[in-house]
Amino acid sequence: MSQLEQEHHSNSSLSTYVDDTPFLSLGTYSKVYNSLADLAIAFKKSVERLKLHLSPKAAIVANPAKLGLALQSELKEQGLHFQVDICSRDLGIPFTAGLALPGKEGISQRIGNTQLRYSRVKKIANSSRRARILFSMSVYPASFWGHAAHPLTTAQKRLVDQMGASCTGINQASRCRTVSLMVAYGPTKHPHARVVSDLFSAWFRFLENYLAKFGSLELIKTAWRKLVHQHTDHVVRAPLKTFAKRHIDSKKYRSATSGIISNVFYTLIDLKWEPLAFDVWVEPDQSVWAWSPKSNVSLVIRALVSHNNLIKLALASKHRHGSGLAHGVCWPATLCQLQKSRKAKNFSSAAAIETQLVAGSWPLARIADTGRLTSRDSLCSRCGKAPETELHQLWECPANLTIDTVAVQSTQQYANQARREAEGNPTYWLRGIYHYGMIKVSHNFPEYALSFSFGPSADWKSGSYFGDGSGGQFSAYAELRRCGVGICYYANFPEPALPGSIQTVPRAEVFAIYIMCLKLVPNSVVSYYGDNSHVIDLVNSPASAKGSCHAGPLQEIVDLIIAKQLVCTFWWMPSHTDTDPKKAELLPPWATEWHVQGNKQADTEALRAARCCQLDLNYTKQYLSMYHLCGKIQLRYVDIIKSLSYRQLPRDLRPEPEAKHKEKYSLHSLISQTTHSVVVTDSMVSCAVCCLRVSTANHSTMTDFLSSDCVPVINSESPQPQQLKTQVSINNRLSHDSHALASFQGTIFCTKCGYRGSYMLRKLVSSCVGKPTANTKRFLDTIGTSLPPLAPVQLQPPPSSESCLVPSRASGIQDPLRHSSATVSEERCTGPALSGTGESRPLSGDDCSSD
Predict the structure, then answer these.
(1) Which are the contacts of 245, defined by CB distance < 8 A and separation ≥ 6?
(2) Which of 89, 186, 278, 440 is 20 to 30 A (C-alpha) from 37?
(3) According to the model, what pLDDT value does residue 660 have?
(4) Before 64, cis peptide (omega within 30)?
């Protein structure tokens, strides 16, 4: 394929994907026409030489459309048959030649095809919440694959959350959907976070592949600049300080989206980021992210997901007891006890904690707020002294003193504090969610500093080095962790602190290798020993670190090794083998006593370095106190809920099941009660008065028609407007009852707002605005709005002259299925025209209007 492309058509792209061979060309009309025509003919010759067959389903997608028609005609003469289409789709990925995507292609079909799978997973999750993994691994990828190239609509994004929440098994009424998703799937793995993560992962892969194939990103820059210009008030890129003042019309998202570039642009706008260029983005806090081929993209994707979560939590803060969610949630503290319960397979406690976190509990006072219970019935079922609210149930009820469990008794001392702070901080005291609005998070990260135990050394020589990292006293708490790095080479012991906001022990060990490579003299030969197998594997195979948070430092290590021409060998050995016999059994055969002592010394130096950069104890003490109390509150809720007796609601409080199907009535019974003058033929039922007709094949439509009121046809030849005292139904659309309708020469109009319609009701379907616009006022003036109002019209029934007419047997209908609308077909039968018998006068200005 590549040989064919190079020999004949250098300005066209030809590739093979499974069983498809797409030809892609970009340029002027004549260049694209000639290159694609020549390439298709040459490809046909190659196929015939290989004795293969071309599929008749081949399609041409071109912009403009006349280019596709011209190519189709040209290739047809050569024996190649193509269909001209506006969109070609394979595996859910559409191609539109730069035009806007059609609305019903791709994702909508995928969602429809996976409904059976989704319903089954949802049913299983109601029995076992562990079945939620089936949504993550099966339903989500099958339903929304390809959303990066075919962006999701606003309704589809909402559907992602709804489907994910339905498969969590957390099905309590009025539970918080956002928190349910983050609790069930994780803060970074819930469906909407995956949509953001998948999109930008695909975007950065696209940039790398495009750059590797074409060697330049000029076309990407041009497309991005054009997109920005179309949706901003300025033509040229403004400076950073003025970009926030631009107006970007994100409401045109759906109509303007044509592929991954516009999808990325509008997603950044939705996340409140500023897309200065395709490779330069600005966070709301004015932090600037710039992409390069060697950038660690996992960090920017993590920041995008974090901002997406903050936007979601800001909306969730309006839910019951969710006022603190807008500040962000400390998920390690909030989910710590839940993860312990899941690990211990204590699923009843885990389910109770999930119910508390998502505000799915329904005490009697909450039921009374819906009007289904009186205030008297909402008193606490245990003490009977106060309404059973969440605060009373969890902290105030004296019956809690009788619950003899450690979780309840150990937290009883916080009851008074909970009463004082529950109104201002219900998210923590009533739902057990630890949020950042309670305490200011310290961002005092250490800068790069290097110290030595036995004096400084400018250059390091060849030899054996041992490195280690330590998280210090608070290594188990991500917000408090500050890491140190230790490196051992015989007598010299450097003790640097790990710089930056990513404070993890594996990163500290990567940083130890970086320091060693930085300080080594050129052409050194060294052996490095570490006790983190994952880090050693990444250093030995840097390509596998792509997408990892360590990708940046590892790339710098590789660059240093190449620049200094270092010969480095990296070895793994277990730690603490001198104190743990089980780990001693894992020592590799080459390890000796001095290897063990070297690893131990590196660990000691790392711990010493970590102590030098720990946070202030006043801050950590307050953080840890609230951290551990959060888990205790959740356990207290579990024990209290388990102690309650089963609550059986009265039957009159339960909603009655809705009827799945309407009861069918026979045609004879419907005719006997209808107000229409019915004419029955072989397949149609029509009325001689209102001249409406419906098919007998559709029983539901026929029932609705015969159960509706008969609205006589007004004489369209009358020179005066005639008032209508009922609603009008045309083409299955019913006029709104707020309009004062009248008819004039076949046109139905409102005498108040002036909206009108003849074959379609249009704006008469919506509520009346009460006054005419400038356009509708001219229509009302034309038909004489200055005359007195129209007198009520008394309509006379038509004479029964034909034997096929079945007169109505009752003036009113008692059918329970009857309503005010009527189903109308586009055809009308001819019937006698009716005219009013009372005094007829033109309409006044207060009663007229138009469309």
Answers:
(1) 238
(2) 89
(3) 44
(4) yes
**SS3 at position 651:** helix
Secondary structure E strands in 492-590: 525-530, 567-572
Q: Could you write out the DSSP letters of every residue in 379-411?
A: B-TTT-SSB--HHIIIII-GGGGG---HHHHHH
Q: Assign 3-class secondary structure to 167-179.
A: CCCCCCCCCCHHH
Inter-residue contact 250 to 266 (CB < 8 Å): yes
Residue 682, CA distances (Å) to 363, 430, 697, 700, 829 in order: 60, 68, 10, 18, 15
CA distance 847 to 851: 14
Sorted by sequence, the CB contacts under 8 Å of residue 271 that are 6+ apart come out as: 196, 304, 307, 308, 311
Cβ proximity of 485 and 469 under 8 Å: yes
Judge contact between 90 and 56, C-beta under 8 A: no
Tell me the pLDDT of the chain averaged across its residues.
Answer: 76
Q: What is the DSSP letter of 147?
A: T
CA diameter of the chain: 120
Cα-Cα-Cα-Cα torsion 40, 41, 47, 49, nearest 10 degrees, comes to -160
662: its two tokens: 């309407």
Does this model's pTM top 0.85? My answer is: no
Question: What are the DSSP calls for 449-498, one per residue?
Answer: B--BTT---S-B-SEEEEEEEE-GGGTT-TTT---EEEEEBTTB-B-PBP
Q: Are 40 and 76 in contact (CB under 8 A)?
A: no
